[in-house]
């Protein structure tokens, strides 16, 4: 679930897709005459155009976004599974639909998605959808905090939704066990809690998230050996567990994002009305992730999860000024 740790960045593309997908560049090559898609043809054609638009946003360097994503192919595969299965729950719908999309010879000429689009099992897709919804609410909260023109009364509503989705996710983290899903959930919890540092006056009040059961258990019992939970180890293997690379990924994400944000802000500020909005939000996210990274540097992952609540972030990090473009 490593890509879920960047979900707050990925979901911002939804805004861009909304205003770009109707371009002839995308729609003209999404006329689906196949009989198998006839029942919901308009929905499939719309999804086809949005999928191609998202592909450009994630992979086309001319858009100025591609450098900031580490696993765009994983996200776009999730996104397509999520959107398609809202129309058709068939297990082979993803491959059948993608076969039609890639019949357009102008699409993905460099084969960046070759072998990357495949069906995601329902259990894992449901887990990923939790993060998709959590980070949508997280981004909405952050926008409210940063922009005085937003309706601040909505902050409590988004926070409540976060708590509801988060507590639903907690049921998937057995007490005393760790997994890549639970690690990603813990990272979300830390990002969410860091939002309190951005709140000024009473413009937003956040509900408190409960600690993960695995977090509580580690405090009392210490880390468990992988052999004690073979079924969880197998699940992590299927999902591509990369727990040992978490610190590296966090460091790479922070540095890569700082570079990518400059270009993104410049391009969007000049060419779209979303420039100042997206730029400010990404800058604040970068500061939050830098704080989280500092807290993790000197601790092993499991020990960090068990002691995180006792660790204080360095205050100096929040005092670093930056100049808006």
Description:
With 325 residues, the chain is an all-alpha fold. Among the domains are: 2-101, no CATH class; 122-244, no CATH class. It has helices spanning 7-10, 13-20, 24-27, 41-59, 72-84, 93-101, 122-146, 154-170, 180-194, 213-221, 230-239, 246-271, 275-296, 301-307. α4 runs antiparallel to α5 and α7 (122-146) runs parallel beside α9. The two termini are 33 Å apart. Mean pLDDT is 74; it is low at 217-279 and 294-325.
Task: Tell me briefly what this model is.
It comes from Plasmodium ovale curtisi. The chain is mostly helical.
**Major sheet description:** none
Low-confidence stretches: 217-279, 294-325
Enumerate how many helices there are, as a single number: 14
Relative strand content: under 5%
Which class best fits the helix and strand makeup? mainly alpha
Average residue pLDDT: 74
Total beta-strand segments? 0
Shape: globular
Secondary-structure element pattern, one letter each: HHHHHHHHHHHHHH
- End-to-end separation in angstroms reads 33 Å
Pfam families: Plasmodium_Vir (PF05795)
InterPro entries: Plasmodium_Vir (IPR008780)
Organism: Plasmodium ovale curtisi
Protein name: PIR Superfamily Protein
Topology at a glance:
Layout: H1 7-10, H2 13-20, H3 24-27, H4 41-59, H5 72-84, H6 93-101, H7 122-146, H8 154-170, H9 180-194, H10 213-221, H11 230-239, H12 246-271, H13 275-296, H14 301-307
Helix pairs in contact: 2-4, 4-5, 7-8, 7-9, 10-14, 12-13
Protein name: PIR Superfamily Protein
InterPro entries: Plasmodium_Vir
Organism: Plasmodium ovale curtisi
């Amino acid at each position: 679930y490593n890509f879920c740790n960047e979900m707050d960045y990925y979901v911002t593309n939804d805004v861009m897709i909304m205003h770009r997908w109707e371009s002839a560049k995308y729609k003209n090559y999404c006329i689906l005459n196949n009989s198998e898609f006839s029942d919901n043809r308009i929905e499939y054609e719309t999804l086809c155009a949005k999928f191609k638009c998202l592909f450009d946003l994630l992979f086309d360097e001319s858009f100025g976004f591609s450098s900031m994503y580490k696993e765009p192919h994983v996200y776009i595969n999730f996104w397509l599974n999520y959107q398609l299965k809202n129309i058709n729950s068939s297990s082979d719908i993803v491959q059948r639909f993608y076969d039609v999309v890639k019949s357009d010879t102008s699409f993905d000429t460099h084969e960046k998605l070759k072998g990357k689009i495949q069906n995601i099992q329902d259990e894992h897709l449901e887990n990923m959808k939790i993060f998709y919804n959590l980070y949508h609410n997280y981004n909405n909260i952050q926008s409210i905090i940063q922009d005085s023109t937003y309706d601040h009364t909505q902050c409590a509503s988004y926070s409540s939704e976060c708590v509801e989705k988060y507590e639903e996710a907690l049921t998937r983290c057995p007490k005393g066990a760790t997994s890549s899903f639970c690690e990603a959930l813990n990272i979300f919890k830390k990002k969410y809690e860091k939002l309190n540092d951005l709140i000024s006056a009473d413009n937003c009040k956040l509900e408190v998230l409960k600690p993960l059961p695995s977090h509580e258990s580690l405090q009392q019992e210490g880390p468990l050996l992988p052999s004690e939970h073979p079924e969880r180890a197998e699940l992590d293997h299927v999902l591509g567990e990369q727990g040992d690379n978490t610190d590296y990924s966090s460091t790479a994400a922070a540095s890569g994002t700082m570079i990518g944000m400059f270009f993104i802000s410049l391009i969007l500020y000049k060419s779209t009305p979303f420039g100042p909005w997206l730029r400010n939000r990404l800058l604040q996210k970068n500061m939050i992730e830098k704080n989280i990274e500092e807290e993790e540097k000197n601790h092993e992952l499991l020990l960090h999860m068990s002691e995180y609540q006792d660790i204080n972030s360095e205050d100096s990090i929040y005092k670093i000024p930056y100049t808006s473009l």
